[in-house]
Amino acid sequence: MLEHNAGAQLALPANEIFVTEGQLDPGLFLVVHGVVELFTVDRRGQDKVIDFVQAGNTLAEETLLIARPLPYSARTLTEAAILHLPNEQIEAWQEQHPQFARMLLSHIAQRVNYLSNDMLTLRTKKAAARLVCYLLCHFNKAPRTPDGSYRLDLPFPRNKLASRLGITNSHLSRAFRELQEAGLIVPQGRGYFIPNVPALSRHVCPAGCDFEPSSTEEE
Questions:
Q1: What is the pLDDT of residues 168-186, one digit of tens each?
Q2: Can you tell me the distance from the alpha carbon of 212 to that of 93, in angstroms, rounded to the nearest whole number?
Q3: 3-class secondary-structure state, position 152
Q4: Rounded-to-integer distance, Cα 22 and Cα 65, Å
Q5: Kindly report the CA angle at 166 between 207 and 19, in degrees rounded to 5?
C-alpha cells in the first residue's frame, strides 16, 4: 500500500493499492482524475471486483458515520489524482457547516440506494440485463439524448467488468454478442455506440426499468 499523509492530494500511477480492506477510519477519497477499482480477495486468493470509481465520485464513505472496517481495498486502474480527506477534517466541516453535513448525509443515502439496486440486479437479472443496468442505466435511469442515441465508453478491462457483474468472461462475451446481433450496440473504438437507448432498455427489461419505470419510455 502506498504511504501518504492525511489530507494529501495523491498523484498515483496505475496498479497502485492506496487503501486496504480492514482499515479503520480511512477518511474519504475523492477521485479527481482516473479510474479506481474496489476489490476484495476471496478464499481462493482471487480478486473480486466490487465496483469502479471514476472522476467526480468518492470511496470509503461507508465508514464515515459508523465505526466499521473498510470492506474493500482500492487500486488504481489508470494514472489517477485523488484527494484524501481525513475523518477529523470531515467531522470539523460537519460541525462548522450544517449544509455540508446535509450534503454528506444525502450522498451516503444515495450510495445506500445504489447498493440496494445493485444487489437486486445481481440477484434477479441475467448477464445482458446486468450489463445494461450497470453500464447504461447505472441502477437508476437510462440517459436521455435528443435523438435517443448514446456513446458508451469502457474505461476498464472486460475481465474486471465480468468480475464486477458476478459473471464469467464467457457470459459477458455472450451478452455483448447478443446485444450486437440485435443491432442494439455497435462497437466503436474502446466503447460502443447505442443507436436507440429506449430500444436497448426494453430489450433487457421488457416490463420497464425496475428503478425508474418511466425512464425507458420514448418522449
A1: 999 999 999 999 999 999 9
A2: 34
A3: strand
A4: 16
A5: 125
